[in-house]
Amino acid sequence: MSDNDTSSATTSSDPATAEASSPDLVQVVLGDCSVADADTVFRALGSRFASERGDDTPAQRSDTEPDTWTSAFLVPESAAPLSGTILAGSVTADLQGGPVAVSRMRAALASGFAVEATGSASGDQEVDLQLRLTAAGNLA
To answer: Comparing C-alpha atoms, which of 128, 120, 117, 131 is closest to residue 41?
Structure first.
């Protein structure tokens, strides 16, 4: 395999084949929310970014709701803003990835939701950021 083949795999537009170390890959974990609100957030992000989930959306498969939903997204340098996103309640979103990609993901989320940072941790190569998302204009 040539060096060009290796680098193209890293920048693939499919998060399922992107390497975990890709600087544009952001892991998103949603929790403390309803299935419908998790679906709303993932659908909004999936409309702008390539996702490992494809068309798979959160679903309730039992009488109890899962604690979290997870997906990974490739976050390019520019993306159209999110719009028309309505949440019934709040959503906790944990973002993990390279500093630039996490910053882009936060900006994208802020274009469609009210966003409040509730925690963060930074390392040399990676940032963990926890956000509280609510419907735009409903941040309490």
So the answer is: 131
